Amino acid sequence: MILLLVRNAWRQLARDRAAQVLSFVVPLVFFSIFAVIFGGGPGGGSRVTGTSRVRVVVVDESRTEKSRALVRALEADSGLRVIATLPEASRGGGRPGEPFTRDVAEQWVKRGDVSVALVLPAGIENSIMSFVGGESVNAILLSDPGDPVAARLLGGLLQRAALRVSASGGGTLDVGPNSAVDQMMPLRFEERPVLGKKAESPMIAFYAAGIAVMFIMFAAAGAGGALIEETESGTLERVLTTGLGMNGLLLGKWLSLTSFACAQILVMFVWGMLVFRLPLLSHLPGFAVMTVCTAAAAAAFGLVLASLSRTRQQLSGLANLLVLGLNALGGSMFPRFLMSESLQKFSLVGFNAWALDGFLKVFWREAPLAALLPQVAALLGFTALFLVLARRLARRWETA
Fold first, then answer.
1. The whole model's pTM is what?
2. What are the structural domains of the chain?
3. What is the pLDDT of residues 180-215, one digit of tens each?
4. Where are the alpha helices (DSSP H) in 310-371?
5. Are 302 and 318 in contact (CB under 8 A)?
6. How far apart are CA 210 and CA 394, in angstroms?
């Protein structure tokens, strides 16, 4: 009898595709995602090789042989990607090929082009290995507090670069990462955050955006399942015989899901404002734009999942697989700045990554509405794509 129960359980699993997805596919997807993030990819590798090098803008205001040697030592470090001159595609301030100024470097950090910038003030060449207090000139790290790793890593690698320059008399010296001299502080620096100065709880914007985007995706997928229930009960067939038609039905469902998602986001951010002092009122225009665009894309995404699934069980399995996978890649579960550059670019295949970037621009970077154009355009494009796909998938109900 016990063996019969075991066989029946396996037979039920064999017939239930949603249960198979939840039991085997979803765990494999999550294992693969986090293995790529933390393990350096399918071929293995260390944590360092699995993530991207820190991109850092360097401003050399000293322009001496010793400061240039310090920049060369930083460029030779495998943990950094140094940008010392303006690239061809640079936005604002200066011509391509010119050295960075302090103001331009600060704008790059504020826009999110880099997480940290290094300024070498005039007189820095006399401060390397000086070990004096008030008379020394400090290097300056212009940082984005939203990425706490970049500034700390740069601060440590800056010490090693200074040791190389000092030990070689202005050239470079190969000092291993585990060398005892790495424990010294040959060059003092001070960190100056350029973002989050006005916010009492600056990281709340990250949490509110990430959680809100993730849960409206779940809610839209679940609410979209009403189409499946109407199909099973015969309600959908009766609706299609009226003058509404499938186009009108999908439009009505999409508008209702969009309004529901807007309400969810609003409740999340109002709660953040009341309890955690999130500065919602001072960012209402950008918040409204991102909320509507994000809700519209999430609602259309929910319709695609509902149109693709034939049963509630299939919808549940598909929603868990796609929603959790997209949010793991999109930044709701793990900061995207800690991922490799290739993985960061790949994560943009999900609309939630664009939505999260937009909310962070509004609340963290305090960007103007015009700066939201890439995120808004991407979200509207995803919305149109999802609606077209949902309409094509819904044809099976018209021909049934």
1. 0.73
2. 53-193 (3.40.1710.10), 200-399 (no CATH)
3. 444 456 788 888 888 765 555 556 777 788 888 888
4. 312-330, 341-346, 351-363
5. no
6. 31
